[in-house]
Protein: NADH-ubiquinone oxidoreductase chain 2
Amino acid sequence: MNIFLKIFIIFNLLLLSFISLFINDLLNIWFFMEMNNFLFISFLSFNLKSKKMIFFYFLIQIIPSILLIFYISLNFVNFMNNNNKILLLLVYSSLLIKLGLPPFHLWMPLISPHMPWNTLFLNLTIQKIIPFYLFSNIFIENYLIYFILISCSLIPPLMMMNLTNLKKLLAYSSINQSSWLMILIYLKNSLWLSYFFMYTLIYLIMFLFLSFYKFNFNFMNNNNNFKMIMLIMMLNMAGLPPFSFFLFKWFSIFLISSNFMNLFIISMLMIFSSFIMFFLYTNMIYLNMFIFILKSKMLILNYSYTNPLKVFFLLSMIILLFPLIIMI
Structure:
């Protein structure tokens, strides 16, 4: 694929997603989302060898798009009211399909192994901005948020038990992280944008690193720098202190305990799920991570900035600890 065409598509994906955050009209948001999907499908056509997967992705995306425009059209002519449970359920379902969240999540881990690292990164991050923003602009019923939080906390750990494919693991990890985004959206707190931004940065570092080294287990087992960076990422994604996700999750729990005690038990389930996810990460990637601890030479870093591994390490530490630095 031509590098300039690739840059053009990615730039427009980012631009459309960013502009949509300043729009309140549902029809315009829908239009930007479909333009975004069109560009991403074009990007897929250049990067995916399997045309069946491209058509499969197109089919998955077109169904919720039709449901959404149907809802918006009825709303536009005042044919319905906002309390119509059936039509609201259609809207919820269409957005859950777009995001790849339960019970419409199976397409996400199915198509993920066929995507290159850069395409998978876009699918798990940039492509989710507008659907999440749409969720923030509609009323979310209590039963829906309960279902989303519980299913996103339980299904990924259960499905990841016997996984060996890292791309599928990251897809399920994205589903699990979505529960924290959804709870912040439900609380009508703009912090969800900061959480999503940090989530995107962490995934960006991971995907750049993995695509750069053409990830394989032999390289991982013989490279302690790789294990160090990946361990830091997984600690952050599990929400362990003092990393950034811990601060976001701690603040979410604080908001729930202050104003929404009906969600407190579910939030405890989400925390427990995060620890299970961390165990699954380490079980798959760091079976020999204690070898790293025994190799004391790693503690004395040779700051050769021509080595991209050191650059990745420094960049990841700055990003992961950035919220903590601000608080200090």
